[in-house]
Amino acid sequence: MKVHLLSDGNLANEDELENHLRLIDPDSPLDSRGGWDTLIGFKICALADLFVLQFCDFFRPFLKIHELNLYGTLIFAELEPYPNGITRLSEDFGEALGLLSIDKKLGFLKVYPELRLQLAKCDLSHGPAFEPTLKLLSLFLDHMLPPPENFSPQPLGVWDKFRLFLHGRVWFKASLLKVFLQGSRNPLVCPEGVLLQGKTITGFFGDSELKFDGDISVKLNSLSRYDDCHLADFKAVRLRLSLQWFCIGDPADHHACRPVAPEYQKTAPFDTFKYFRANGIGIKITVASHENTELQLYSNLR
After folding, report:
1. What is the value of pTM for the model shown?
2. How far is the C-alpha of 48 from the C-alpha of 26, rounded, in Å?
3. CA-to-CA distance for 209 and 222, rounded, in angstroms?
4. Whole-number Å distance between alpha carbons of 209 and 284
5. Which of 45, 103, 110, 120 is nearest to 75 (CA)?
6. Where along the chain do its domains lie?
7. Residue 209: pLDDT over 80
8. Angle at 231 between CA 228 and CA 236, to 5 degrees
9. Element at 157 (helix H, strand E)
10. SS3 for 222?
11. Helix, strand, coil percent values for the chain (each to nearest 5)
12. Per mean pLDDT, which range of 30-34, 75-79, 222-226 is the poorest?
């Protein structure tokens, strides 16, 4: 796999970077009058003939990609904290340096990707056998990406962390996409399940919305393989999935999450994520097909 990071003259100016941020994340109100602590952008290009993600002792890979081509823009940004978002740390370094004080800025470094992804073939597997491993991975990410101390008395969930740190848009195109929903709990035996196959897939993900266009077929795989059934064919399918996060405040205003240093919290601990934390989610799914759709109902009588 080859990854290239390239500088771009259009991303060298602070005003140009700010305009790009507003274009990538239009729903979030951005107030940059206080300045930036970190603001850097560059172009990225990644190429790979084969990329495989496989869990130990699993017969089927969780993710397998052929001929990966990724290119676009990456921006890392962090607003300058308020005066009450700076804490002073003191450390005794002995006789050599004595007692030193360091001012630490409390903030969040956020990632703004604008990427285009092209794949020749992609295989994705999921099912009951994968769920314990994915749950363990989720707990691992919970511990690897915790909010710094004193940011909130109540922890922030994994999906809220993604909403806080990751903002952007991704366009993708795949010649062949296969999703296998495994029915068995045994990771070593996995012939039975549902196989979803998409051809000439194009899509977009961003702004809490997923768009998906292409041809989809559904196949049922049995344990003996003698009872395999081609269930359905959907031509020129258009899938739209919209997410609505239910929060006390504006779910898109992640810039309002400004940490407060412990020495400024005189009474109860300050909840940085009170208005950003999601209490629920609404999902709207729209499916349309502009050509003939074939659905075969199958029953095996013995």
Report:
1. 0.79
2. 32
3. 34
4. 10
5. 110
6. 2-295
7. yes
8. 135
9. none
10. coil
11. 15, 50, 35
12. 222-226
